[in-house]
Design a protein that fits this description.
It is a single chain. By secondary structure, the protein is α+β, with helices and mostly antiparallel strands. It has 2 domains: 124 residues; 149 residues, Reverse transcriptase/Diguanylate cyclase domain (Alpha-Beta Plaits, 2-Layer Sandwich). The chain is built from 7 helices and 7 strands. A 5-stranded mixed sheet has the order 2-3-1-6-7, with helices on both faces. Strands 4-5 form a two-stranded antiparallel sheet.
């Protein structure tokens, strides 16, 4: 679907470029026609002058010479009049074409701005989880790569927190997917409320979330993780008249220089498994 929308946008851009190319081609043809018409006019006038000079040289009477001059001047005047009429018509066309071009350029600028906005929106939409409104797995992978790339320069510790909702399948099976969606949205909002401006949170799977805490040591990250865990536990849900308790478990690992996403995930997932195995609603460091 994303590829199809991008293709539609590119097709619109191509259409606009083709229109601009046609405008420029028409302008070039008009310029070429004007140049050729000017050349023809100059040649015609020069021919009349040469013919007049030749005939004047052979004329022996003043009356004959005067008649020849008048005849030639009338022809030159006719050519001038015709050329001026063509020029006036051409100027009207040029001005009209220029005005249409200016109008079309302004329209193209507006459409280009709209296309940029659509592309930005498509790009943003491709990195947002549609259910919870937070970042998705693709966005997380990009952020993870950025953190690893700048880690040697920044020399700041980054801790990854891998979260999983406890017994989420039971909620879906017992109360339906709409209830499950509501839980996911509320937990995601709880996660977002807990992170700081330079931190990152994303939904990377069904009921699985991940956080990146930048400039945070493991001890501090563990405190934050337990605060988030308690905040989720404090959420209140009622489905079909029944109170439903929701908890989360977390596995933490500190990112290492030149770390790979899979390796970091394996460490955090192993810690998360221990949290699940030891009773759930726990945060465990790798």
């Amino acid at each position: 679907m994303e590829r199809l929308r991008v293709g539609e946008i590119l097709a619109e851009v191509t259409k606009r470029l083709d229109e601009m190319a046609r405008h420029l081609s028409d302008a070039n043809l008009a310029n070429r026609s004007h140049f050729e018409d000017t050349q023809t006019y100059n040649e015609t006038v020069m021919t009349q002058v040469r013919d007049l000079s030749s005939e004047a040289g052979s004329a022996t009477e003043l009356s004959v010479l005067q008649s020849l001059v008048n005849t030639r001047l009338e022809r030159v005047a006719e050519h001038v009049s015709n050329f001026r009429a063509r020029e006036e018509f051409r100027l009207i066309e040029v001005n009209g074409r220029a005005e249409r071009m200016r109008s079309r350029i302004a329209e193209l600028e507006r459409e280009t701005s709209e296309l940029h906005s659509r592309l930005d929106s498509e790009k943003q939409g491709a990195r947002i989880d549609p259910l919870t409104g937070i970042a998705n797995r693709k966005s997380f992978e990009e952020r993870f790569a950025q953190e690893i790339a700048q880690k040697p320069r920044a020399q700041l510790s980054v801790v990854m927190l891998l979260w999983d909702l406890d017994n989420f399948k039971i909620i879906n099976d017992s109360y339906g997917h709409r209830a499950g969606d509501r839980v996911l949205q509320s937990v995601a909002a709880c996660f977002m409320a807990a992170v700081r401006g330079n931190d990152f949170v994303a939904r990377i799977g069904g009921e699985e979330f991940v956080m990146l805490l930048s400039g945070t040591k493991m001890a501090q990250a563990m405190l934050i993780a337990n605060q988030v865990r308690s905040a989720v536990e404090a959420l209140r849900f009622h489905f079909r008249g029944t109170p439903v308790r929701v908890t989360v478990s977390c596995g933490l690992t500190e990112l290492e220089e030149n770390d790979l996403a899979d390796a970091a995930f394996d460490r955090a997932d192993a810690a998360l498994y221990r949290a699940k195995h030891n009773g759930k609603n726990l945060c465990v460091a790798a």
